[in-house]
Amino acid sequence: MKTLKEQVNEIKSATISRNAKKSALAKLGITPYEISLMLESEPTAATARTAFTFGVEIECNVARGSIREAASVTGMNYEYEGYNHRDGHSYFKFTTDGSVTGSNPIECVSPVLRGSHGKSSLKCAIDTLNRAGATVNRSCGLHVHIGAQNLTQQQCANVFNNYFYLESLIDSFMAPSRRRDNNPYCRSLADHSALTGCESMADVKTVLDYDRYHKVNPMAYDRHRTIEFRQHQGSTDYKKILNWVMFCGKLVDWSKKNRLTANVTSIDDIPFLTPAEKKFFNNRIATLA
Length: 289
Known about the structure:
The chain has ten helices and eight strands. By secondary structure, it is of the alpha+beta class. Strands 1, 2, 3, 4, 5, 6, 7 and 8 form an eight-stranded mixed beta sheet that branches. The termini are far apart.
């Protein structure tokens, strides 16, 4: 028979909503105050361990000379290159992007990042962009790649299925320009209900017409062994970017064992987010309403 501590830890680590955890803990005879303390101690986006690898592409406008001056202060490791999709770089790569408009359009592409060191590297890059006066406009997007090299074909398909059922809720904390049918570079999955029957990346690519310009890109897997999330609007706000990275990474991780069958309509019902993350996204919904 499991001890009380073992039962509590099992409930705290379960992929269920916060309210479900409260109910399960209460059935063990734990007081509401003790439950509050237990759940508030869960990790935040800034401190949670990230088992997944991630990469970020930040579209913005910033002058090369300004980056040089800012990087001399922050120590950002970067290089300017011509347009390419090459992997394997250990530095932040600045490259051209034809979809970005403005006086100094550029895309800042991170190397493969992981854990606390990856978060620190990302923050350094964002601090550099902000010190250099980087700006974003409606043409800019933020793309997040989550490593998928260890996922099965079914698990990859689960990610697209789950995003399909989460999309309307995700739309509510995205800028209007990145919502359904409002941007040709991140088209909706909502019109592709056949995603719910997909069991492999081949199935997903067929349903999405082998087109990478969707909120979740089905073509990144073959090229990079990643799943790319393209919906987020351009940003140089570290908190916004990190929370979205954590959302995407946790969604991929949760999709290894879980497959939604109905729309999720409340942030509080997303089982893979911490209380702090739920508060962040609920605040974003209120701001963008």
